[in-house]
Inverse folding.
């Protein structure tokens, strides 16, 4: 499975958009980009995923570059409760799904 | 149930003791995964079930680790003769359709070996 690279930490002001980047330059054509976040003492929470088109749901937007080598998770109006570790992973939609290593993610701190 | 339930929430074991960690996935979820998360690190894959079949156990760190899902629903992760390096949070996740939907994780079991 392709590996991902994320910045170790980021800060964002409350109410502003948080843009979290992820590089996945070795992604294969059948691999999806998934984003999860983990708030302290809880299990990771699924946010959004995509293959090649941009995606939006009630939590966030996912922008995937045309060459699929990178993506950005956008939290449009960050709140203090969005402070968490954000993980970007790539996975195949077959029996190998779930084997991906999460890496250490990006620690997002939303500040008042 | 509404979510993935794991028990116990916390477990303290003496070195050399056997432990069993339980995972109740969301009803109807075919796929079930176990992850190990060390302090300050991301989750690492341990093993994967599709229904009762264990399709991948390549992430289990040693033969002291054993997982089962005999009826395709509840799963148990067993660790024999626990060592200090086994101290971690053990996360269970389930999914309805493999690779298409995101996984729903439980809150994990924090194992401390003393």
């Amino acid at each position: 499975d392709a590996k991902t690279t994320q910045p170790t930490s980021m800060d964002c002001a409350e109410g502003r958009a948080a843009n979290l980047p992820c590089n996945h330059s070795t992604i294969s054509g059948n691999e999806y980009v998934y984003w999860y976040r983990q708030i302290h003492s809880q299990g990771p929470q699924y946010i959004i995923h995509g293959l090649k088109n941009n995606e939006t749901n009630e939590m966030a937007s996912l922008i995937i570059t045309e060459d699929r080598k990178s993506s950005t998770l956008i939290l449009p109006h960050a709140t203090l409760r969005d402070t968490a570790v954000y993980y970007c992973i790539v996975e195949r939609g077959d029996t190998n799904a779930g084997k991906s290593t999460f890496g250490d993610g990006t620690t997002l701190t939303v500040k008042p | 149930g509404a979510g993935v339930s794991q028990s116990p929430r916390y477990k303290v074991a003496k070195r050399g003791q056997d432990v069993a960690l339980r995972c109740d996935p969301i009803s109807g979820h075919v796929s079930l995964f176990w992850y190990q998360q060390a302090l300050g690190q991301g989750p690492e894959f341990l093993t994967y079930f599709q229904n009762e079949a264990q399709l991948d156990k390549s992430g289990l760190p040693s033969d002291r680790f054993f997982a089962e899902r005999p009826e395709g629903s509840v799963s148990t992760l067993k660790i024999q003769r626990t060592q200090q390096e086994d101290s971690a949070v053990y996360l269970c996740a389930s999914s309805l359709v493999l690779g298409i939907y995101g996984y729903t994780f439980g809150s994990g079991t924090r194992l401390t070996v003393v």
In short: Chain A has a mean pLDDT of 91. The interface with chain B takes residues 32, 34, 36, 41-49, 85, 87, 91-105 of chain A (CB under 8 Å).
